[in-house]
Amino acid sequence: MGGNNLIKAIFIDYTGTMVLEDEPYTRELLGYFIGHSNMNDPREVLKVVWGKIKEYEALSHGDDFIRNDDRIDKILAYCVENCGLEGDLDYMHETWRKIWVHAPLHDDVKPFFERSDKPVYVLSNDDLCYLEESMKEKELSPAGIISAEIARSCKPDRKIFEKALEMADASPDEVMFIGDSITSDVTPALELGIAPVLIVRSKDADVSKVPEKVRVIRSLDEL
User: Fold this and answer.
1) Above pLDDT 70, what percent of the chain?
2) Do 196 and 216 lie in a common domain?
3) Among candidate residues 165, 153, 83, the one with its CA nearest the CA of residue 124
4) What's the rounded Cα separation, in Å, for the pair 179 and 162?
């Protein structure tokens, strides 16, 4: 990949950016929620679950950090108490683990890794053991994986980005960060002085609120 010689490393988000969010295990889990709770619509399930994920991630820092596995148990317990969730919680947790590991890559990801002439580092709020298993399964060899448990902090907190800079031995102006979220990816990168690239694969997505200095791409093939 032809690149800017000033760029020393590339950071890339995992969920949504590298792997699909709408995939078989996610649909299986949504179906189980609907069949075993008082939530009747996938959008309702996603609103509740995603809201709790973001809430627990925001509280998970430093000495109060808890791994993704533990956050999932808290979300399931919340849904049991507040959403009438019943059924096999172990099965639901195991399905969640399968999402972290087996969610398929977007078609443009492996070619991007193969042609990059810069080291690529994966950043994610997921637990390291599942990220490592996923990379092995997908036959990808990133220069490093920076998980929330390594940084003891979840995106959009800047600590995970600072840990990535430390691992890459790079300053903010020597890296770019590719992600699919303005809140979790673009904003913290800009605050640290890292050049963000927002990937928006949906042709119907509204990009009018993207900050002016942020490059928007539809595919990793554009880099």
Assistant:
1) 98
2) yes
3) 153
4) 16
Could you tell me the CA-to-CA distances from 183 to 7, 29, 119, 187, 189 in Å, in that order? 23, 25, 25, 6, 10
Q: Tokens for 137?
A: 């399964």
Check whether residue 91 and residue 80 sit in a common domain. Answer: yes
Q: Which whole-number Å values give the CA distances from 147 to 12, 19, 160, 178, 200, in the listed order?
A: 12, 16, 7, 16, 23
Report the chain's C-alpha Rg in angstroms. 18
Looking at this protein, which amino acid is placed at residue 177? F
Residue type, 74: K
pLDDT digits (tens, 9 = 90+) for 66-108: 999 999 999 999 999 999 999 999 999 999 999 999 999 999 9
CA dist 142 and 140 (Å) reads 6
- On whether both 161 and 55 belong to a single domain, the answer is no
Nearest CA among 97, 143, 140 for reference residue 117: 143
What's the CATH number where 174 sits? 3.40.50.1000
- Looking at residue 108, the DSSP 8-state letter turns out to be T
Q: To the nearest 10°, report the CA torsion of 167, 173, 179, 183.
A: 100
